[in-house]
Amino acid sequence: MLFISFSVALTAQSGFFLQHGKKKVRIPFSLVNNLPIVEVEINGTPLSFILDTGVKSTILFSLEAADSIQLRNTSPVLLQGLGPGGTVDALKSLNNKVKIGNVEDKDHSLFIIFDSSLNFSPRMGIPIHGILGNEFFQNFIVKINYSSEVITVYDPQKYPLKPCKKCEDLSLNFVGSKPYISLNVANGNKEEEVKLLIDSGSSDVLWLFDHDEFIEETPKNYFKDFLGLGLSGNIFGKRARIPELIVGNYHLINVNTSFPEENAITKARYYEDRDGSVGGGLLSRFTVTFDYGNKRVRFKKNNKFNDPFNYNMSGLTLEHEGMELVKEERGTAVNSNRANQNDSFSRSSVSITTEVHFSLVPKYVVADVREGSPAALEGIQKGDEVISVNGKPCYQYKLFELIELFSSEEGKRISMEVKRAGYVNKVKFYLKSVF
Fold it and tell me: CA–CA separation, 297 vs 290, rounded Å?
């Protein structure tokens, strides 16, 4: 799971507008690991950004991307976010032209982080250059259709939000311009209201900071895991399920929930006074419409609403580690027909020509193995290169497809070829639920 959440107290401008006086525009996006990926032009250079309501400002964290664009009026700043570490060095850049489809800000401030460890592309399997924060939402009504992978941006003066009988409209509260919502969590006969950050830049379903009501040792109902990468370092914690999460009149059962370690969330508790966050694992089950001007958010369930809450049952975290050259042999069959004067039929011969092709393909390696997981019990180790999965070369998968495979169903057989120190080993295991 990928988690991205920054708590940055910065002065930002809110200058996005719809071009050419349009009432609305549609912006396609790609949904990868429950995260919406949009194309953003910064001073004319197209880049890939995560649309993140949990962040206030636009942040560029790809050093290569920063080298390829012209950045204006820069000055050094320090940023602080979730994670156990301290502040990180960054540059603040003013007066930039930022464009997303037909939505534009001609005087946009952004922040550039040069710490090479803050690189989300390997875990996503695609290039990710930064995050587009919730400044994007401030002047509009923004509808994110996770099923069709389309964002529709409306001018609220020309296209106000209309009533919807099949929707749930809930109030938004803002702390430092970031959106918060109050939902209920239930455990048996006990129901509790929690204040949650709406964080479209987190791939998880739900984070809760307090776990006394949900974590048990006998019988053990959780496992420890890497939860995500924050601005101030890696975040670890426990994963479990809560019996029920209530979103208005929508009730979600046996919900995957992460409980981060205290050292990663102390600052969020102090500055934001919240109980946790909801992420893409929840939002992607709805069409979500944000109306910042009227401080409300609308949920309308989609075809994913009743899908079970699965998680990675293999215990493997894979990441993209560059490209490698592979050789593929392709055979081409050529038919040759010859007529025989003494026979009433023709004779055929087939010749096969073999062509050799070389291709650059992605290389996937094991970034982490959960202790006691099916993969760990089969001896797979951090740093192993994955050559094939279920008889198919690994490079023929997208990284999110492998994550989906590992999260598919308990008991599913997974066969792999892994390379270590130049030797290829074959292993197999079965996906197993901890709960």
Answer: 5
Q: Are 231 and 111 in contact (CB under 8 A)?
A: no
CB atoms within 10 A of CB 46: 11
Residues with Cβ within 8 Å of 163's Cβ and at least 6 positions away in sequence, in order, are none
138-148 pLDDT, tens digit per residue, is 999 999 999 99
CB 32 within 8 A of CB 233: no
**Which sign does the torsion angle of CA 272, 274, 278, 279 carry?**
positive
Two tokens, residue 364: 């996937």
Query: What is the Cα–Cα distance from 235 to 227, expressed in whole angstroms?
Result: 5
3-state helix, strand, coil in the chain (%, to 5): 10, 50, 40
Find, among 382, 385, 363, 386, the residue nearest to 373 by Cα. 382
> Could you tell me which residues are beta bridge partners of residue 316?
369
Q: Is the peptide bond before 179 cis (omega within 30 degrees of 0)?
A: no
Of 202, 158, 301, 144, which is closest to residue 4 (Cα–Cα)?
Answer: 202
Q: How wide is the angle at C-alpha 141 spanned by C-alphas 149 and 305, nearest 5°?
A: 45
Strands (E), 80-161: 88-100, 103-113, 130-132, 141-145, 150-154
Please calculate the CA angle 82-83-85 and round it to the nearest 5 degrees: 120
| Residue 298 vs residues 139, 159, 290: alpha-carbon distances, Å | 17, 15, 7
Are residues 263 and 84 in contact, defined by beta-carbon separation less than 8 angstroms?
yes
A 10 A CB-CB count for 221 gives 14
Locate 283 and state its tokens: 């939002």
Please report, as a single letter, which amino acid is at residue 85.
G
Longest dimension (CA), the chain: 96
> Which of 316, 332, 124 shows the shortest CA–CA distance to 225?
316
Q: What is the pLDDT of residues 8-48, one digit of tens each?
A: 444 443 589 999 888 999 999 999 999 999 999 999 999 99
- 386-421: pLDDT as tens digits: 999 999 999 999 888 999 999 988 999 999 999 999
The answer to whether residues 105 and 13 touch, using CB atoms and an 8 Å cutoff, is yes
Among 201, 125, 122, CA closest to 367: 122
pTM of the model: 0.84
The SS3 call for residue 39 is strand
**What is the tally of helices (H) and strands (E) in the chain?**
6, 29
